[in-house]
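Appendix B, example 12.
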Amino acid sequence: MPVPARRSTATLLAAGLLSVGLVACGSGESEDADPGKPGDKILTIYSGRNEQLVKPLLDRFSQQSGITVRTRYATTAQLAAQLVEEGDRSPADAFFAQDAGALGAVSKRKMFAALPADAVQKVPQTYRSRGGEWVGVSARSRVLAYNADVVPAAELPTSVFELTDPKWKGRIGVAPTNASFQAFVTAIKVQHGEARAKEFLAGLAANEPQIRENNVKIVEDVNAGAIPVGLVNHYYIGEVAKEQGSTPEALKAKLHFFPGGDTGALVNVAGVGVLKRSAQDPDTRAFVDFLLNPESQRYFAEQTFEYPVVAGVTGPAGVPPLADLDSPDIDLNDLDTLDATIALIKDSGLVP
């Protein structure tokens, strides 16, 4: 049953909270341990980033800093709802989110502390909150993944809105419960208005898209020829190639970057916010600094195939430079209406 847009983020996502109980804890620590105290060398991180992508980086942080890291993994939307539900009782020190929209949704509930200015100023204004409550640590572009053997380049759409054309019926892969897809829909609202977003979702649903759990599944199926095209983030091509012991160039799945500032070319960020209770904790400051240091920025470029957001670090191979992307003029701070967006997606029928 569709969820009314007026309900809160926590209520909208309550159904997903049950699955958040599956927790991965580092260094042998239990999730039931008492919340840490400032400077105790224990850090609890809620991570909406995929464990396979970021666990090696978090392990490296723990090894280098001597700080024990307890990590709770779930989807970014689930963890945003978890934080809102917990409020001041949350044991989390930091929220490592997949997209700016979820960070904004938590931030506007006044749950984040302002980050140190010298940390956030390492990142361009485009990729951080206006008030310094969260900061992007890596960037990614929305793209259309396509199988070059199935869809000739000449037939690729010039706008994401063309995917509602009946010729794409049953041929599109989407992951409507994924945070990046939700942020993309929010971007349509910001750039074109809610009516256009509803129209797009209705047209997409009418085209009977192939629903997948996440971006990886979409890229795998596009590469295998099971789906001709799919809406994903650019870096999943690199991730799938890595999993298959191959290279992005060798895959049949290729990337199409929508031109002309199209909403389908949204550049979003993964980022981090620090909960207010941990504002004075040197451990959280160490974590933010770690994510923005050159070594971690190179990790994002070389291991997860994302764009670094700190100057002086070379971007991932095989994709256009971040500065050359023809992305829409959208303020990431305006992507904070997560609750309303999820309601729209539910109303469209893309999510049961």
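The chain has two domains: 42-139+267-320, 140-266+337-348. Confidence is low (pLDDT under 50) at residues 1-33.
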